[in-house]
Amino acid sequence: MLWIHGQISTLQTIKGLIIPSLVSLTVPLALMSLTSEVNGKGQDSPNILASQQMAPRGQLVFCVGIGALVFVPVFKALTGLPPFMGMLFGLGVLWILTDAIHYGESERQKLKVPQALSRIDTQGALFFLGILLSVSCLESAGLLRELANYLDAHIPSVELIASAIGVVSAIIDNVPLVAATMGMYDLTSFPQDSEFWQLVAYCAGTGGSMLVIGSAAGVAYMGMEKIDFFWYFRKVSGFAFAGYAAGIAAYLAVNNLHISLPSTLAQVPFLSGS
């Protein structure tokens, strides 16, 4: 959302957030590796693990799907079309691929894109639509601007505001939070790629992982793996919070020490937006 509306750009976001993102991933993994469960005690046997490996065709579809997502910024930079067109293009590629690899196999029709589209969570989509419309109403009424003025008066640090947004996103989905933040602050308050918008992108993107209900992916994970809220809170939330806090600390350290990636990244056409 921030990228689509111009609050952040591709190159500056990669340069500014790649180190904090890697830190936020590395810290929980390092902490989890110290636990006995991940260290080898109680692991499944090799035969069970082998039976759970993804089939080659499944790996192909997975890789193409991830590649289609990564291709969206490239598509936008090359064509100038809105990102949703890139998503539709990727969906078309997946549609052709699944039809080709499952052609003539009636028992595998459920693995094709049309069947997958029939299982879309329409209620979830309508929920987000209603939330975004509600946020737009609050913005039109001027309430979000008043909230922004209140936060500026009582919390002068933009780092604390962005960090608080990430913590709240563990309870409330980050989509309405980011939409509300964009309604509270415009580009005249914080220009494109400013520290505030980059911190909001990081905090809202990773803060939802602290609780399983903090994101649509977490809710889907609950349904697929049949886990409950308290199991996730006991086993994962502490690691997720450690990674979240470490990422914020890394971002502030990088900015205070003026550490940046080599300027040669600016020569990459689709990253520089040229």
From TrEMBL:
GO terms for cellular component: membrane. The chain crosses the membrane at residues 17-39, 60-78, 84-104, 125-144, 164-187, 199-224, 236-254. The keyword Ribosomal protein does not apply. Keywords: Membrane, Transmembrane, Transmembrane helix. One of its GO terms (molecular function) is antiporter activity. GO terms for biological process: sodium ion transport. InterPro entries: NhaD-like (IPR045016). The keyword Cytoplasm does not apply. This is Uncharacterized protein. It comes from Gossypium barbadense.
